[in-house]
Amino acid sequence: MTYKRFILWLLVIFWMGIICFLSAQTATESNQLSGHTIRILIPIFMPEFIDMSQAQQKEIVVNLQYVVRNIAHILMYFILGILCMCTLIPYEFKLKVKVITALLICTVYAATDELHQLFMDGRGFQFSDIFLDFCGALFGVLMVVGHQSLWRKQRD
């Protein structure tokens, strides 16, 4: 295995570790993290948020948590999809095999991650989360494939 391949696989494993770390949070910790993230980001999109009462702010944060959590699933697996596909690009397989392998790695990891959450206080297994993870991974994989295709066209 070349040094570059080794580093790329390490990045994949590192990112999987980040996902695992976030999934290891209890429901309370996860709610606090997503709530804190919303409170940091919402003033960018809604400047009047700062001047609202605590009750109004809390209601907005609670209402946005579902959306933010879904976006987080997509984003985390978008990055994993990119990393997996970039790691597989140098291998001498057909493109179709690389795409399927990258998506399989991401989807199997998403399923095991959901199983892992069964053991966390207040968390559970959600097929909808696996679907979101798959969609994020698919977008990431397709982005790499598209970039690779454009790069080859410019090179030729």
Describe this structure in words.
With 156 residues, this protein is mostly helical. It has one domain. It contains five helices and no strands. It has helices at residues 3-23, 27-45, 54-88, 95-117, 127-155. Helix 2 packs across helix 3, helix 3 crosses helix 5 (127-155) and helix 4 (95-117) runs antiparallel to helix 5. The mean pLDDT is 93.
* Helix fraction by DSSP (H/I, runs of at least 4): over 70%
**Overall outline:** globular
Q: Which structural class should the secondary elements be placed in?
A: mainly alpha
- Compute the separation of the termini in Å: 28 Å
Query: Main sheet?
Result: none
Order of helices and strands: HHHHH
Strand content: under 5%
Low-confidence stretches: none
Q: Mean of the pLDDT scores? A: 93
Number of H/I helices: 5
Give the C-alpha Rg.
18 Å
Strand runs, count: 0
Compute the number of structural domains: 1
List keywords for this structure.
5 helices; mainly alpha; 81% helix; 0% strand; 156 residues
Give a topology summary.
Elements: H1 3-23, H2 27-45, H3 54-88, H4 95-117, H5 127-155
Helix pairs in contact: 1-3, 1-4, 2-3, 3-4, 3-5, 4-5
Q: What is the gist of this entry?
A:
This protein is mainly alpha-helical. The chain has helices spanning 3-23, 27-45, 54-88, 95-117, 127-155.
